[in-house]
Amino acid sequence: FVLFQTVRHGFPYLPTALAFDPVQKILAIGTRTGAIRILGRPGVDCYCQHESGAAVLQLQFLINEGALVSASADDALHLWNLRQKRPAILHSLKFNRERITYCHLPFQSKWLYVGTERGNTHIVNIESFILSGYVIMWNKAIELSTKTHPGPVVHLSDSPRDEGKLLIGYENGTVVLWDLRSKRADLRAYYDEAIHSVAWHHEGKQFMCSHSDGSLTLWNLKSPNRPFQTTIPHGKIQRDGKKPESCKPILKVEYKTCKNSEPFVIFSGGLSYDKACRRPSLTIMHGKAITVLEMDHPIVDFLTLCETPYPNEFQEPYAVVVLLEKDLIVVDLTQSNFPIFENPYPIDIHESPVTCTEYFADCPPDLIPVLYSVGAKHKKQGYSNKEWPISGGAWNLGAQTYPEIIITGHADGSVKFWDASAITLQMLYKLKTSKVFEKQKLGEGKATAEIVEEDPFAVQMMYWCPESRIFCVAGVSAYVVVYRFSKHEVNTEIASLEVRLQYEVEDIITPEPEIIPPFPDASSQLPSLKSLSGSTNTVACEGTMKDSIPCLSVKTRPVRMPPGYQADLVIQLVWVDGEPPQQITSLAVNSAYGLVAFGNCNGLAVVDFMQKTVLLSMGTLDLYGSSDPYQRQPRSPRKSKQFAADNFCMRGLSNFYPDLTKRIRTSYQSLTELSDSPVSLELERCKSPTSVKGSRKLSLPTDLKTDL
């Protein structure tokens, strides 16, 4: 028996690099942990890992050749063969004396250009994957009269007009067009701001640079002395005619031409400094129109997808792939409002951190279509109507497929149902468990008895019965919600119960007897039907001491519940004598008997979710006592002395009397004092309570314990 990883779902962790093959239409993402994810049409998802674990600096496809070059932070280059089922490294090349900063592989070229931190450019033969020996030294590239080092190589690209001309961008603002045949510089351009990226016009007569002061400069090869156009797109224009104020660095720019319209200039960064709270943005300039797309996460990289792989043709851009730290977004450039494409990958698994998961195989065949139909009604609108542009690769389902469902619980209280029958995950349905509770006002956390400051609705445990469709969730704030599935919308109040679980360890440490008052009338001790409690010793609140209050407030007004999973019952543990309830550590449901059992370090509770009644609440000491509380004959209560059976049945009576020298053995017939030793904590509880209506009997024989 060997464990074998078959598939990896979710967003690549800590992404660093992006590449796209415009012919095969596949995308590659590199990460800080040395992983590479290759994505194509939905279902095409391949994972490979560098053995060194070094971060991926850059990725370059050998376009339409089924190969990929990766440059890693340990200054190694790797050539990956993608033509086999599991991609593998064909060749590796390690740089020992210089650090790699930038790579460029021209379309249909056999030469890979590698720039380094020292400012030198090396050339690698892509077929043999060895250094050619041709090195463009930094001191040869810049003017001999310039003594200062130009900084690392930040950009390399070949001229669209002539692949024998290489444009080299240095960090300090120097750009050199190098003639590879004559081994000399054709032109040199200098700018007094650091360069971050360079982009060519497809005719090869102009190029654009992005700079650290938020400016874009446009250069003409015929007059390289100064840029013929300088703009600061997000800079405020000064009244006295001075240069606009500088902005944040433009980290990357792409300059893409269209046959029938103005060119697109797309860049990341460059926002003004006075808007400190602005989110990371991608700016699209098309003619005189400037559109700023705000992102939810920092931008790692972006690529413009064009109709042609040839750099010397009109590019005709149709989409922009934006790689964020925690998301992948594709923007449609063909529509004026730039809508995004609906992402078919299960990228948003960690939209809110996953806190628990459950896996179910061989589900009833009607379940996936039913969940999909209710989930489809809640989908967001406003996506692009075009097909997902990353459509390469091929995959087959195989002969053996059966319904599989994965359920993920999240920190924000949401629960997602995923179809895992195929290799890819498809989201079926999303449930927000936090909707059963009142929204908490800011600054109210401590006052409302919260036990967790962050993520009070985080899902800790889930139980699902695919046959009965009963779904149960245990949350971090010591609550359990029972859900039923319905195809119809309802508008109803949410039923709630409160359970008191108390662990009296102090009583063992201090065995001094206390004076016990006469046992009061039992009916006066019972809580109201709304707050059924595991015990009845309500301590008066002194000052800020919290007692018998839950951590969260369940909505009391009628709630509109859409088709899908609808809350049937909320069970909450309450504070006891100023102590918060402990988090629930175990959960079990028996949908046939209508029972939910849950426990924590303080004890165990069993609730009948059909009758919405607490059946059992036992402290840990009682559960682990020397005698088994189940070893007794079941007795039915007498109708004459049945007092509020739903409230009182199977309650942990150790909470009535704290000292362990006295014990109460109870049934519905009598309440009798019994002397007992502190070690044997023996409790009698009734076994077969009847409901108030008396129409439904519930018997719990000894052999039923396992089902709970």
UniProtKB/TrEMBL annotation:
Residue span, Lethal giant larvae homologue domain: 231-339
One Pfam family matching this protein: LLGL
UniProt GO cellular component terms: plasma membrane; SNARE complex
Ranges: WD repeats: 188-229
Entry GO MF terms: GTPase activator activity; myosin II binding; syntaxin binding
InterPro entries assigned to the protein according to its UniProt record, in alphabetical order: Lethal2_giant, LLGL2, WD40/YVTN_repeat-like_dom_sf, WD40_repeat_CS, WD40_repeat_dom_sf, WD40_rpt
Descriptive protein name: STB5L protein
